[in-house]
Amino acid sequence: MLNIFRNMNRKLKIRSFSFLMTSAFIATMILINIFASMLTERFFIKADLTETGLFTISERASEFLGSIDTVVDVIVLAEESTWTATPMLNMVLNTLQSYSAAAGGRLHIQYVNPDLNYFDGPKYGNSLTNLRDAYANLDNMVRNDIIFLTSYRASLVSASDLFVQAMGQGGRPFVSAVRTDQVLIRALLHVLNEDIPHAVFVRNHNESPGEYLKFVLDRSGYSFSDIHLAIDEIPDYATVVFTVAPKIDFFSEEIEKLERYLISGGNVVVLYDFATLSLPVFDAFLAEWGISVENKLIFDEDHTYPQYGIIGTHIVSGYLESTVRGEFETTQTSIRIGAVLARPLRSLWVGDSMSGFTQFPMIVTFSSSSYAKSLDEGVAITMEREAGDESGPFVIAYNVNRVVRDSDGDWTSASLVVAGADMFDDEFLGAFGSTFFNQDFIAGLASDFNPGGDSIFIPAKPLVGNHMPVTSGNARTVLIIMVILTPAAIYAAAIVVWYKRRHK
Fold it and tell me: Are 219 and 171 in a shared domain?
């Protein structure tokens, strides 16, 4: 009898210990899941299983967000529940939460029902109407818009601007890519920079429209305007002046305006047109800066396509700021860049400097495969390489620096950048700009010329080909399974095992 009692007592202890260990394991799992959930809410830690990193902020965006030291109010004109329930808007919601975590909580995000006309803004009487009246660019704000607000200014982002739409079969539009990163970072740059960089486009020499250049500059945080150089003065606040493929020569008075602007420490970008072979006055201006555009066309036997004449080249410096700002420590970086029938540039000076000028080649063709043909009038040009063709390398983008004194008497650097316009025409940039380096080249110049800090250009992320997108709805489902259903199943199984062992 005593042995039976001892055996029963031992079995009871074993069963009680098993039950206790199972319960402790389940409780630990629940606590771990709750703690992990709290961490993900606080630091927004989530897995991104998409091929193009739709839910991962880019490295450049992350660096910029980490450098923010000013509080930015982010006002979303919609209820949070509405955005959560809408897949595309939910993607933006996730991005904003990631931004807030990366910025160390300096982005104060609030979701506001615009119909209630109320938001947390004591400076504006907590009234959206007062906020809209304070900033002219908020006049047209509507539901689902996002407002970024600092003491400097306000910026308005339309939800539709966050996505790239394309036409599918049957003419039905669909969202092909997201540019959330770029648009939101651009809005943050706009409200955080004390001075907004401004690009001026010269328009009275039958220049090309340059719409895609403006697109890249806009995404890099620039404002821009057009001027008639024969009539208008270059504004003092101009960060950079563009002349895009001029086809009519300049007046001497216009050249004087460009020179005065450069001498004051300005930046001029000349994008020459391969089809315009001679602009005597303007060519003389370039010659004063030591640059001649040769009457030749460049091809590349490895990277030439019949429709566009794309050539493979490399950029001499790994960082564009080292070319523009005069820090001449260079690295050799092989990068392919697209060009449409570019013409080579030639230095008119012996050596690399003269009278305070310093020339720096920015883009150079590959020596082994590039070749040039002379542009002789009345002679047809074939794209095939022939025995008499000049071999590369060829410089197709120069930056010329000149050290000058600005209006305050301080030493500064004037920059003249010369490159082929056809590398940056609207059709080419739209079709091939993200494949080659062309968009990044212009964005790099925009960043280098920006006196208020770096500009940031982030290409859109395509939706096509992405697999296993993890939305907040998916995350909630996983959370329910991990925190509730899985522990409950383990607990139920433990009870069944305990019950069966007890009744053996």
Answer: no
Q: Are residue 253 and residue 346 in the same domain, yes or no?
A: yes
Are 200 and 153 members of one domain?
A: no
Q: What is the 3-state secondary structure (H, E, C) of 368-411?
A: CCEEEEECCCCCCCCCCCCCCCEECCCEEEEEEEEEEECCCCCE
Same domain assignment for residues 187 and 274: no
Contact (Cβ atoms closer than 8 angstroms) between residue 178 and residue 91: yes
Find how far residue 341's CA is from the centre of its chain. 27
Number of domains the chain contains: 3
Each residue's pLDDT tens digit, 300-359: 877 665 555 667 776 664 444 433 333 333 334 455 677 777 888 888 876 555 567 888
- Orientation of helix 87-102 relative to helix 59-67, angle to 10°: 50
The Cα 243–Cα 59 span in angstroms is 32
* Three-class SS state of 359: strand
Q: Pick from 167, 193, 219: which residue ends a domain?
A: 193
pLDDT of residue 107: 92
User: Are 90 and 103 found together in one domain?
Assistant: yes
* Pair 16, 78 in one domain: no
Residue 320 and residue 447: Cα distance in Å, rounded?
9
In the block, residue with structure tokens 């060829």: 394
Q: How many angstroms separate the Cα of 399 from the Cα of each of 243, 360, 416?
A: 15, 5, 6
List the beta strands (DSSP E) in 41-153. 72-76, 107-111, 146-149
- As given in the structure block, the two tokens for residue 492 are 């139920």
Q: Would you mind telling me the total number of residues written for the chain in this entry?
A: 504
Strand partners, 225: 200
DSSP H/E element including 175: strand 173-178
| pTM of this prediction exceeds 0.70 | no
Q: Are 100 and 111 in contact (CB under 8 A)?
A: no
Q: Which domain holds residue 160?
A: 48-193
Kindly state the greatest CA–CA separation across the chain: 121
Task: Write out pLDDT tens, residues 221-233.
Answer: 888 999 999 999 9
**CA-based R_g, the chain, Å:** 31
Residue 37 inside a domain? The answer is: no
E strand or H helix at 26? helix 2-43
| Residue in this structure with the two tokens 């305990």, named with its chain if needed | 498
Please enumerate in sequence order all residues whose Cβ is within 8 A of that of 199, keeping only pairs 6 or more positions apart, or say none: 214, 217, 222, 223, 224, 225, 238, 239, 240, 241, 242, 446
The answer to whether position 220 is within a domain reads yes
Q: How far is the C-alpha of 180 from the C-alpha of 219, rounded, in Å?
A: 11
